[in-house]
Amino acid sequence: MHRPHHLLSPLRHLRPLRRKISLPSWLPVDGFILGLVGTVALAALLPVSGRAATVTDGATTVAVAFLFFLYGARLSTREALDGVRHWRLHLTVLTCTFVLFPALGLAARGLVPYVLTQPLYTGLLFLCLVPSTVQSSIAFTSLARGNVAAAICAGSFSSLIGIVVTPVLAALLLGSGGGGFSADSMVEIALQLLAPFLAGQLLRRWIGGFISRHRAVLRLVDRGSVLLVVYAAFSEGMVRGIWHQITPARLAVLLAVEAVLLALMLTLTTYGSRKLGFRREDRITITFAGSKKSLAAGLPMASVLFGAQASLAVLPLMLFHQMQLMVCAVLARRFADRAPEPASGPAPEAVREEIAQPSAVSR
Questions:
Q1: Could you tell me which residues come within 8 angstroms of residue 271 by beta carbon, excluding any fewer than 6 positions away?
Q2: CB burial of residue 243 (10 Å; 0-12, 13-18, 19+)
Q3: Taking the CB of residue 301, how many other CB atoms lie within 10 A of it?
Q4: Are 312 and 174 in contact (CB under 8 A)?
Q5: What pLDDT score was predicted for residue 356?
Q6: Cβ neighbours of residue 219 under 8 Å, at least 6 residues apart?
Q7: Contact in structure between 331 and 287 (CB atoms under 8 Å)
Q8: Cα(112)–Cα(124) distance, integer angstroms
Q9: What pLDDT does residue 363 have?
Q10: Contacting residues for 27 by C-beta, under 8 A, at least 6 apart
Q11: What distance in Å separates the CA atoms of residue 139 and residue 288, rounded to the nearest whole number?
């Protein structure tokens, strides 16, 4: 029997989203994570060196620039400006991302050298400095019946600001020990990350339609760019013998530390937003956008900032990324089960398109 259009659920257009992030019981990770694991294994078995490494580094530089160009071309300036009215929510998310997270990262300094080695702590602190996600925040906020539009704006603001703030914080908090930060490093960040992003924004008027029509193909391109960055970083780590510094016990301890970090941030965002008087939908947005970190934004930044030490620097971020996806998937379902009623009104068309066609850039 055909149901009248007005009786259909207002979230009917988000059904593809449910299928996208539902995790099979026999597979606790998604395809992109499996690709990352496979890339790390390939780098361990067949690391590049010599002239091949030079070619790979050049390809990585181009891939990173193209990655941020696509990011700039995808980000709707109009939607970002429309979300400015939620300034309290965005300020709260930015505070969680660039103040609370770094503060917890600095507090973890006391774990060195008895719990964490200095290189692993450097990676943990860098993890605390990268911006929040866009796509994952939108996905989980939608499942939990939160404020989807605010999640888009919050993630977009965080990513945009992070292009500048993350390198600055890294220079201030990590210093020369984090990878030789200097004025040249900042210029390289501007040329490799910020300039392509701004170029994408400027050209969005003309290429936005093309990107929307070929979203599936471009999704493969930007995921491939991320995998190339991972391969180059871990190959260099293998050639330099960096992995001899890590034992299974150290990895287990790192996972435990990151689990505590994630639990603290989820607690702070959940109860802190309630104390600040946000309504339920906005609290959900703050919880997911304020407690998550972007793998795709952090990997290219690490390759520029850390150079030969990038493989160890991104390891904590890669582990945290998978952990946050699994934990937040469970939390989103619990929020949805406790929702008093479905969210009012369908999501905007741009939101539905972006959710239905996720990309690695915004993960």
A1: none
A2: middle
A3: 29
A4: no
A5: 42
A6: 357, 358, 359, 360
A7: yes
A8: 11
A9: 52
A10: none
A11: 9
**Residues of the chain under the 70 pLDDT cut:** 1-32, 75-84, 175-189, 240-245, 307-308, 341-363
Task: Tell me phi and psi for residue 347, to 5 degrees.
Answer: -70, 155
Residue 292 vs residues 42, 112, 133, 269, 338: alpha-carbon distances, Å: 28, 24, 6, 11, 22
Closest CA to 316 of 120, 89, 110, 74: 120
Torsion of CA 353, 194, 96, 295, to 10 degrees: 60
Tokens of 22: 């539902």
* pLDDT at residue 63, as a whole number: 80
Query: What pLDDT was estimated at residue 156?
Result: 77
Tokens of 284: 């959900």
Alpha helices in the chain (DSSP H): 15-21, 31-45, 50-74, 77-82, 87-95, 101-107, 118-129, 135-143, 148-174, 183-189, 195-213, 215-239, 248-275, 280-290, 295-306, 310-338, 349-356
Q: How far is CA 153 from the centre of its chain?
A: 15
CA atoms within 13 A on the CB side of 92: 28
Determine contact, residues 9/344, Cβ cutoff 8 Å.
Answer: no
Query: What pLDDT score was predicted for residue 346?
Result: 44
Under 8 Å between Cβ of 85 and 264: no
Calpha distance 105→95 (Å, rounded): 14
Global pTM reads 0.72
End-to-end CA distance of the chain: 39
- 159 φ, ψ (degrees, to nearest 5): -65, -40
Cβ 97 vs Cβ 252: under 8 Å: no
Residues 72 and 199 sit within 8 Å (Cβ to Cβ): yes
Q: What is the pLDDT of residue 189?
A: 67
Nearest-angstrom CA–CA distance, 320 and 324: 6
User: Cα(211)–Cα(70) distance, rounded to whole angstroms?
Assistant: 8
